[in-house]
Amino acid sequence: MGALRRAAGAVAAVLALVGPAACGGAAPAAGPSAEKSLILATTTSTQDSGLLDELLPAFTRDTGWQVKTLAVGSGQALELGRRGEADVLLVHSPAAEKKFVAEGSAGRRRLVMHNDFVLLGPPADPAGIRGVPTREAMTRIAGAQAVFVSRGDDSGTDAREKDLWAAAGVTPGGAWYQSTGQGMGATLRVADDKAGYTLSDRATYLSQRDSLRLEILDEGDPNLLNVYHVIEMTTRAGARVQPDGAAAFANWIVSAPAQQLIGEFGRAGFGQPLFTPDAGKPEDALGG
């Protein structure tokens, strides 16, 4: 697939190999061949929540395809697809996804699952947002100039946060509004250290809750719905794209066995599933 593609530009540091690696000079072991290795670009929430650790080994076992994962913000994942540096995308930024697919380099876009976003903050809640409507919560945070830690990384979470500020008629800025430029897990730790507010997907928060003082202060608003789609790339994005690999992953993740894994993920550890499987619903279901 070429050295440049394997490096995947500036995000090579987040490249993680799932499955057995080839050993230089050694005879190949039984199992998937080097030719059956695809690149998945996905949001950090699927990695930080632990969902990929559950899904990818099962995918490799069922299909023979190995997966190299680029866990970045949804915006960056779409850009990797646009440049032909990923075969398949698993993202959660519906408005950006629709624009991306309309450009013509992508193939099918299918609904996979959803969870929701939650507004988190310190137990003392200096802005007084606990239990109030989300629009009012954003207004109160800005009015109090309470520390708010944003991902600021063009991710699906970052896009939704900006939508929430806009709906509240607020343009955030100043010393109280701080951006990490990092993924969800890192942003949660920064917000916790600063006793600030932040927006998180529920799955990542629950998976890291035991190490955080942050609490859920606002949840359940329809504007906090968090919808994920899988997008297959085509060779229109670049000659190195593997449509067969893209289709294999996309078909598998919407299949009944994968959807069952998604629906059960988190139940044992947290007493509730962290994602709700949605494959087979209309493409515009859940506002996605």
UniProtKB/TrEMBL annotation:
Q: Name one Pfam family in it.
A: PBP_like_2
Q: Supply the alphabetized keyword list.
A: Signal
Signal sequence segment: 1-29
Coiled-coil segments? none
Q: Which residues form the PBP domain?
A: 34-256
Q: Does the keyword Manganese apply?
A: no
Q: Does the keyword Signal apply?
A: yes
The entry's protein name is Solute-binding protein
Organism of origin is: Pseudonocardia acidicola
Organism classification = Bacteria, Bacillati, Actinomycetota, Actinomycetes, Pseudonocardiales
